[in-house]
């Protein structure tokens, strides 16, 4: 082997060693990055119905906003983490959570015994009533829940009202029809246009919508089903994330941040205190 061959072979070996070292270093960095992404630095993916004002919805510019959005952003900030809002089919919310496509369900989610079977919940942060909405000046003689008998009633698919009727055959069978919608906005639009006699909705959402369409709709002080409470839904085994978020929520209640966000969206503090 002549000198040129020796030098060429030496250069090849040095290059190979460098490449191997570089490859090992890159693998180590990727592994480290993956490890850190599963911990405190990972973005929290929030699953929501993005047409559910004022809890979470798209504004006129297409940005997701709302009460729960503001609270989630502040909570993530205090945890030193980013937050990503992912619109999902609310009727498939538990499957989205269980599959890991989202980390939490945080959008006016009612705490129910049925849902507790499949997920963990934060402490409740707001009361929620299901009430009846009608066209202004046309209440169809509805004075009590019993007066919904024989009426076409609209509500959101996968929501608390649907669960209530699914568990109460007598009340459901008394309706002429329980019309289910992808979101409450569609239900209220059909109410305005006379396609349903009444809409049973979360009071918070209904009153917010009514504030924008007050000349067309009216809220009746008729509570349908039990009064529920909003909470944040987590996977059954995700006790760590639940504990982290609950801790900062408690801090936000204590220092008045929750009250301030509530006043922004509802004109007063309607959040629950411990």
Offer a few descriptive terms.
274 residues, alpha/beta, six-stranded mixed sheet, five-stranded mixed sheet, 10 helices, 14 strands, 43% helix, globular
Number of helices: 10
Quaternary state of this entry equals: single chain
Radius of gyration: 26 Å
Q: Hey, roughly how much beta strand do the residues contain?
A: 15-25%
Short description:
The chain has 274 residues and is α/β, with parallel strands linked by helices.
Structure, described:
Helices cover 43% and strands 24% of the residues. The protein is built from ten helices and 14 strands. With 274 residues, it is of the alpha/beta class. The protein has helices spanning 3-37, 67-79, 93-99, 113-116, 160-166, 169-174, 184-192, 203-212, 239-254, 257-266, and strands at residues 44-48, 51-52, 56-58, 64-65, 83-87, 104-110, 119-121, 126-128, 130-135, 152-156, 177-181, 198-202, 217-223, 228-235. Strands 1, 5, 6, 7, 8 and 14 form a six-stranded mixed beta sheet that branches. Strands 11-10-12-9-13 form a five-stranded mixed beta sheet, with helices on both faces. The model is unreliable at 1-38 (pLDDT under 50). The radius of gyration is 26 Å and the shape is globular.
